[in-house]
């Protein structure tokens, strides 16, 4: 009777078969170490308890290997995955997003190491390590992350060479040799990678959208309300808010107002957003349009900090009736936009009576001295009232400081203007807008950024760096026949703020403390930022439009055309040459050439499909008198090529050649 073979029986060891041999220690520990390095990049994004758990799991697996102990049963791994997965759901609310999904992947990889009992398990873990390395780009895409992932890829490939080492499970390879082979493999693949990156057709839009928000995601930069101190809290934050690369000359510092949220609601102390209409408001301007590329850092906020004022709305954005560009869903990753702006403009002539009434509202009572001052201007024309308030700020003895005293009274405007007389930009802007409303002039508060520092970019191009410390607040007042007019009361208190930036507006001691935040090597820091900007422009920002522009300049036409197909094919062939050359060198290595000399001397070349053992048998039949020597030389060749522990030495190669000649 024929035995029935069940499809799942092949995975079970036959009765009496020997137990699987333990894995070699060197590649196993190397694999665990490299996986730990890949996981280290996520340390800042995961809870502390979870990071410690991952370290405990990987360390425990290494301890089991060193002591030769058995792995825990499979059911314990399942229970651990369920329990920890439930804890992760309580932290992230879901495992479908970026943070929760990545944390679950890290957990499963750590638990999978306890199932690593065979070589193929190790290879699977290394493939998961490559995937883990790629997921780092979900969190950040800057130059250090790219270098870190390249290091992880190098070490993962070195581990693959350790496991793929021929000669049995006990074969070992020196780490230096493994790293060298890994580096050669990656360098051989580099030309092909570059060609595919540059020429492979890019979609007009993302391939997918990933929910990246979570309960632990932080928000930085300008908020959705303004109170005394909310902008000055950013003054000592030197992190980059955005960068701007202009097509032509960079405009002067005093004209570089980068528009953020506009606040029209006021309760006496706090400014808040109000619902506004959508759609591009009527505007006019003169002068040449400034073209630039804006690269926003992640903020978690919807504001697109465009130069005041934009002349159009890029795809994927919308604009409000107060000239605020908005990114639906928020800026949760580094994003780039090609924009145009005109710095001399007029808009808001069509403002509705309802909006002007809202922008003239003041709570009843409070700040009697400020109200009396505003009432003293009642006989002046509206524009003259604005000028009178500006002159008051110039002559009132107000001071600009990073650490203004708290305004604790129920009359904060009076306290600032007549008592403390020290403030930051939002203090002056809020007080100025209050005086304007008290004088019957519609006014609102605008926050954003002012100025920016010029950095020499790669290729000789200058670009602007706007840091959180460049955050600023100013006022817009509405005047008949002029619309909304920008007034910056900080310029009245400290004109140097407009021309020289924040440090120029502060006393020497405060400016020195601010500059110390740039680090010990500010020049090196600027060079690195130039590298980061180039990376943003040409790698992260290499989208469909940039690719099509490059194709047009190179004369390749549209993707998919004849010229494009010919160029792509030719470059792919050229890019593959390093791998072909390496393959041909491997075929022509000295040991193989020495063994092939046996067939040359016997005038009996080996067939292309013939293994060394098959050739030895055929040659022995052809030359019985030399059969023993042929078999011995063939066995020595197999041992040297596939069974040696270290690299072949020159002495071993010379001895092998002599044996071939003797045969």
Q: Percent of residues in beta strands?
A: 5-15%
Q: Helix/strand-derived class?
A: alpha+beta
Cα-atom radius of gyration: 35 Å
Describe the largest sheet.
5 strands, antiparallel
Number of helices: 23
Identify the notable features of this structure and list them briefly.
alpha+beta, 48% helix, 5-stranded antiparallel sheet, elongated, 663 residues, single chain, disordered N terminus
Q: How would you sum up this structure, described in words?
A:
The protein is of the alpha+beta class and 663 residues long. The chain is built from 23 helices and 20 strands. The strands form 6 sheets. Strands 12-7-2-18-17 form a 5-stranded antiparallel β-sheet. Strands 9-3-16-19-20 form a 5-stranded antiparallel β-sheet, covered by helices on one side. The longest helix has 26 residues, at 562-587. Residues 1-17, 166-171 and 210-219 have low confidence and may be disordered.
Summarize the structure.
With 663 residues, the chain is α+β, with helices and mostly antiparallel strands.
Question: How are the SSEs placed, and which strands pair?
Answer:
Layout: H1 25-40, H2 48-67, H3 74-92, H4 98-112, H5 119-135, H6 143-163, H7 175-199, E1 225-226, E2 240-246, E3 257-263, E4 265-266, E5 271-272, E6 283-286, E7 290-296, E8 303-304, E9 306-307, E10 318-319, E11 325-326, E12 335-341, E13 344-347, H8 353-358, H9 368-375, H10 382-395, E14 399-400, H11 412-420, E15 422-423, H12 425-438, E16 443-450, E17 453-456, E18 462-467, E19 471-479, E20 483-487, H13 489-493, H14 496-500, H15 502-505, H16 508-515, H17 522-540, H18 544-554, H19 562-587, H20 590-602, H21 612-622, H22 627-642, H23 650-662
Parallel strand pairs: 14-15
Antiparallel strand pairs: 1-5, 2-7, 2-18, 3-9, 3-16, 4-5, 6-13, 7-12, 8-11, 10-11, 16-19, 17-18, 19-20
């Amino acid at each position: 009777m024929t035995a029935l073979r069940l499809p799942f029986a092949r995975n079970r060891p036959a009765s009496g078969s020997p137990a699987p041999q333990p894995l070699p220690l060197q590649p196993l520990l190397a694999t665990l170490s490299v996986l730990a390095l890949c996981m280290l990049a996520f340390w800042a994004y995961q809870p502390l308890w979870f990071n410690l758990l991952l370290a405990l799991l990987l360390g425990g697996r290494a301890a089991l290997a060193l002591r030769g102990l058995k792995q825990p049963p499979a059911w314990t791994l399942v229970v651990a995955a369920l329990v920890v997965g439930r804890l992760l759901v309580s932290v992230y609310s879901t495992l479908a997003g970026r943070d929760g999904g990545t944390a679950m992947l890290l957990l499963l990889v750590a638990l999978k190491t306890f199932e690593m009992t065979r070589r193929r398990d190790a290879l699977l873990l290394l493939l998961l390590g490559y995937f883990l390395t790629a997921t780092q780009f979900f969190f950040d895409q800057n130059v250090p992350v790219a270098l870190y992932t390249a290091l992880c890829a190098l070490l993962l490939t070195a581990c693959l060479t350790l496991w793929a080492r021929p000669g049995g499970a006990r074969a070992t390879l020196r780490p230096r040799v493994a790293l060298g082979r890994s580096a050669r493999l990656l360098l051989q693949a580099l030309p092909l990678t570059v060609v595919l990156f540059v020429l492979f057709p890019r979609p007009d839009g993302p391939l997918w959208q990933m929910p990246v928000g979570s309960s632990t995601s932080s928000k930085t930069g300008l908020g959705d309300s303004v109170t005394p101190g909310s902008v000055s809290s950013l003054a000592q934050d030197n992190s980059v808010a955005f960068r701007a690369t202009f097509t032509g000359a960079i405009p002067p510092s005093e004209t570089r107002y980068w528009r953020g949220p506009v606040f029209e609601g006021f309760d006496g102390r706090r400014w808040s957003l109000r619902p506004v209409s959508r759609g591009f408001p009527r505007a006019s301007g003169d002068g040449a349009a400034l073209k630039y590329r804006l690269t926003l850092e992640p903020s978690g906020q919807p504001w697109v900090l465009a130069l005041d004022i934009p002349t159009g709305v890029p795809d994927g954005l919308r604009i409000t009736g107060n000239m605020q560009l908005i990114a639906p869903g928020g800026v949760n990753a580094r994003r780039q936009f090609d924009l145009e702006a005109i710095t001399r403009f007029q808009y808001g002539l069509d403002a509705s009576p309802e909006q002007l009434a809202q922008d003239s509202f003041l709570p009843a009572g409070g700040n009697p001295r400020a109200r009396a001052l505003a009432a003293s201007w009642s006989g002046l024309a509206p524009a003259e009232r604005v000028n009178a308030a500006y002159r008051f700020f110039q002559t009132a003895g107000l001071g600009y400081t990073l650490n203004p005293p708290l305004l604790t009274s129920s009359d904060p405007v009076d306290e600032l203007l007549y008592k403390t007389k020290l403030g930051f930009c939002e203090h002056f802007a809020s007080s100025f807008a209050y005086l304007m409303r008290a004088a019957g002039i519609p006014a609102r508060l605008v926050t954003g950024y002012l100025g920016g520092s010029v950095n020499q970019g790669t290729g000789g191009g200058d670009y602007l760096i706007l840091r959180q410390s460049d955050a600023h607040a100013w006022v817009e007042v509405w005047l008949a026949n002029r619309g909304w007019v920008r007034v910056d009361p900080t310029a009245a208190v400290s004109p140097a703020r407009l021309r020289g930036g924040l440090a120029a507006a502060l006393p020497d001691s405060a400016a020195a403390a601010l500059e110390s935040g740039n680090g010990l090597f500010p020049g090196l820091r600027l060079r690195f930022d130039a590298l980061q900007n180039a990376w943003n422009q040409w790698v992260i920002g290499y989208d469909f439009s940039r690719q099509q522009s490059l194709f047009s300049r190179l004369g390749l036409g549209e993707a998919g055309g004849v010229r494009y197909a010919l160029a792509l094919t030719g470059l792919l062939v050229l890019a593959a040459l390093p791998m072909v050359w390496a393959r041909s060198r491997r075929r022509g290595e000295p040991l193989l050439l020495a063994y092939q000399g046996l067939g040359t001397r016997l005038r009996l070349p080996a067939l292309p499909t013939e293994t060394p053992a098959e050739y030895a048998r055929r040659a022995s039949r052809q030359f019985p008198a030399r059969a023993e020597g042929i078999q011995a030389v063939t066995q020595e060749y197999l041992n040297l090529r596939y069974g040696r522990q270290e690299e072949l030495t020159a002495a071993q190669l010379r001895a092998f050649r002599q044996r071939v000649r003797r045969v």
